[in-house]
Amino acid sequence: MTILLFIGGLIGLVAGAELLVRGASKLALSFGISPLVVGLTIVAFGTSAPEMAVSAGAVLNGQTNLALGNVVGSNIFNVLFILGLSALIIPLVVNIQLIRQEVPIMIGASLLLLVFAQDNRLGFMDGVILFALLIAYTVFLVIQSRKETRAAQDEYAAELPPARPGGWDARLPVQLLLIVVGLGLLVLGSEWLVSASVIFAKALGISDLVIGLTIVAAGTSMPEVATSLMAALKGERDIAVGNVVGSCTFNILGCIGLAAMLSGDLGLAVPTALLNFDLWVMMAVALACLPVFLTGREIARWEGGVFVLYYVAYVVYLVLASQQHAALGLYSMALMGFVIPITVITLIVVLIRRVPQAHNPP
């Protein structure tokens, strides 16, 4: 029964992603809003609905470790695994707005969460501030999109052609229905997938925090996986990248903001392990986007491969740490002393060589 639940969840996610991307992309040009902004708002917020549902439910059930682990793990998964896998399929062209505005906002949200968590607690007012920032950010994006220049709109239209006049999805009611049905399938499919995954994880004796950082984080991020991969395959790269960046911002400001408000006067207790390691990994992953995005304004296949390998390395570390495995010390030494420094040096060299080319095209 658990296996059937898992398979049914995957089917729901794929079908929901197809409907959501189709409806949202057509709706974008119908209202004169760029696909990038739709990816950052409607699609990103919609596909983050499972994270919000899981985090809110976990707080109400007293499982705060699961709530925090889910969001932090999802952000790490979003950037390293989803962007990495999407880039392996097709190199992703990065819109200049992401480099100049959205990634810095994502980094700022990550830094703010890190600051708020320094006392090992996220209080009610912390949650209010985070959620208020999410509302302000969304309003700002919509207003900004409506003021875009004609040249910018032509750029988006070239990447995402409008629906044919006689197409079945050209009418507004159909587009809205596609989005609603797609979101419904995504949320339902994610819920089934997470339920099955938690059963598997519990059987292995893994802690709530590790389950949240890995199984639940990956499960609730499956809508982002399906949506970004589908968008990448369709050539809608603004939605593919914008969805991931927007989801990370929404997860911090929206999911953790709501969870902290629901926690009341007690607040959310932040585990020391999360504060000392995983939050810093999330911060580092957000910072890693800038040099990667700047190198020619695209995520190349090799960079996508590095992202995916780092996610695998991170999960292996969590599993070894949860089991207090004898190989943990040697593994950590190899990761911190060799693999990460080599990658950083490579990115710096590529950045130095390619940024001038990006600013001075032939």
Question: What do these coordinates show?
Answer:
With 362 residues, the chain is mainly alpha-helical. The protein has one domain (2-359): Up-down Bundle (A middle domain of Talin 1), CATH 1.20.1420. The chain contains 14 helices and 4 strands. It has a two-stranded antiparallel sheet with strand order 1-4. The chain has a two-stranded antiparallel sheet with strand order 2-3. α1 runs antiparallel to α8. Residues 155-163 have low confidence and may be disordered.
Within CATH, the superfamily carries the name NCX, central ion-binding region
Give a short account of the largest sheet: 2 strands, antiparallel
Arithmetic mean pLDDT: 77
Write down the secondary-structure element order. HHHHEHEHHHHHHEHEHH
What is the helix content? over 70%
Whole-number total of structural domains = 1
Give descriptors for this structure.
4 strands; 2% strand; 362 residues; two-stranded antiparallel ribbon; A middle domain of Talin 1; mainly alpha
